[in-house]
Amino acid sequence: MFPTEHKSENKCFERPSLMVDAPVLLQRRTVPLQFSFHELAGKVKRLEDQKKQKASDDLCYRRFRAKILPGENQSAEDELKKEISKDMFKQMEIIGQFNLGFIITKLNSDIFMIDQHATDEKYNFEMLQQHTVLQGQKLIAPQKLHLPAVSENILIENIEIFRKNGFEFLVDEEAHVMERVKLVSLPTSKNWTFGPADIEELIFMLSDSPGVMCRPSRVRQMFASRACRKSVMIGTALSVSEMKKLLVHMGEIEHPWNCPHGRPTMRHLANLDIISKD
């Protein structure tokens, strides 16, 4: 009935023509690729060898440079602290005993010399430091200390540390400041005697390190003397198991690098890789 309008509607709904990609002919070129598992394995092995060589060079030329001389003691100790961890002592191989006084050990390519007496002395010393509770001797009558208020507070707050050092006190919280603490027991050990001077030293140490287990210098001297007497002496022949035990002990203490008297326990002798290259 309305042909013109009907024709117009058809135009409105007519979809535009879509552009379709035309096929393109590509010129391809085949290039042969040389591949060999044998060559690949060889390259991987060479890379691994280069990494090992670099690590070996670092080990040889950088880890231990200090000489075995008194003037180089600090440098040698610093190197050992940096390069030797506690678990490495268990890994060391026993080569033997030298001159009935030194243990020769090997860790990878490094050779070390260990003083058997000094290392055993340091282990025994640290065990005494950590675990010994000194026995005190009661005084006939409690002794007033008349400590300054600050020192008195330090003593009261760390009284358990004083007890482990053999000092016992009677504390009267109701008394006036500087009169709250009385000494009732002093440590004694054979020829060693202690007194107020050792208490003052311990208070001074605890003022810098509150709550830390400290020992007065004279107690340390006593422990060092005890440790020396009970340690393996120079001139004593040791079995492999006895030498191994000393090595294991070095890995169990905090500061294994010198004995209580300052003598070095361990020094680096040589590196086998450097010797073989020379």
UniProtKB/TrEMBL annotation:
<dbReference type="GO" id="GO:0032389">
    <property type="term" value="C:MutLalpha complex"/>
</dbReference>
<dbReference type="InterPro" id="IPR042121">
    <property type="entry name" value="MutL_C_regsub"/>
</dbReference>
<keyword id="KW-0540">Nuclease</keyword>
<keyword id="KW-0255">Endonuclease</keyword>
<feature type="domain" description="MutL C-terminal dimerisation">
    <location>
        <begin position="94"/>
        <end position="238"/>
    </location>
</feature>
<dbReference type="InterPro" id="IPR014790">
    <property type="entry name" value="MutL_C"/>
</dbReference>
<dbReference type="InterPro" id="IPR042120">
    <property type="entry name" value="MutL_C_dimsub"/>
</dbReference>
<dbReference type="GO" id="GO:0140664">
    <property type="term" value="F:ATP-dependent DNA damage sensor activity"/>
</dbReference>
<protein>
    <submittedName>
        <fullName>Mismatch repair endonuclease PMS2</fullName>
    </submittedName>
</protein>
<dbReference type="GO" id="GO:0004519">
    <property type="term" value="F:endonuclease activity"/>
</dbReference>
<keyword id="KW-0378">Hydrolase</keyword>
<dbReference type="GO" id="GO:0005524">
    <property type="term" value="F:ATP binding"/>
</dbReference>
<dbReference type="InterPro" id="IPR037198">
    <property type="entry name" value="MutL_C_sf"/>
</dbReference>
<dbReference type="GO" id="GO:0006298">
    <property type="term" value="P:mismatch repair"/>
</dbReference>
<dbReference type="InterPro" id="IPR038973">
    <property type="entry name" value="MutL/Mlh/Pms-like"/>
</dbReference>
<dbReference type="Pfam" id="PF08676">
    <property type="entry name" value="MutL_C"/>
</dbReference>
<dbReference type="GO" id="GO:0016887">
    <property type="term" value="F:ATP hydrolysis activity"/>
</dbReference>
